[in-house]
Request: fold
Amino acid sequence: MIKNHFCHLVMIENNMKTKPIFGDLGVFCQGVMFALVGDDKLYLKGGSWLDSWFQEFECGRYCLEKKHSTTTVNYYDVTDLAVHNHSYMQPLIHSSKNLAIRQSVFKNHCENARLRNLPNMNVSLERMLKKASICSVPELLELGAEKAFIKVAKVRALNGRETDKRVLLKLYGAINRLQWQLIQQPTVDRLMLKIAESEF
Reply:
């Protein structure tokens, strides 16, 4: 059965566990989910620099069908790569698992952290966020870089001030524990396109 094949492929360590999620099977390592296994689909969790890898392989994202809406989550369909035993499968699985664990540890650490202590942040950028009613690290993480940037830019525009697009990259880097100068160009282009397409 292909589902068993997918489970065997992603459960590369003895301490991994599974439980039902969204009608499929979630695969967990150290209490953090990084993969979804269905009867005929395999999804890996994305995030940060991994997104550009999945996009390069043209992997679609997981769509959760609700009663009155559809929600797209940050898990990428790697079924074709898995079925054809692509050489990148194990590196993708390993990277997805490790990134998911690091992000979870970072998020838990951030519950009591100050905005100014995040990568790329300083007192000035912290003040910008607070003026836009983003007063804590969990609030920033929940909003994401694009929405946080738009809120900051709107508040500054009311006072006749423009907001440097580098602020967007700094926020993305802060959320993903990455120096903004090291963000890869495909990710920069994607972020800038989202801002350009927004109503703002």
In short: The longest strand covers residues 70-77. Residues 78 and 84 are 10 Å apart (CA to CA).
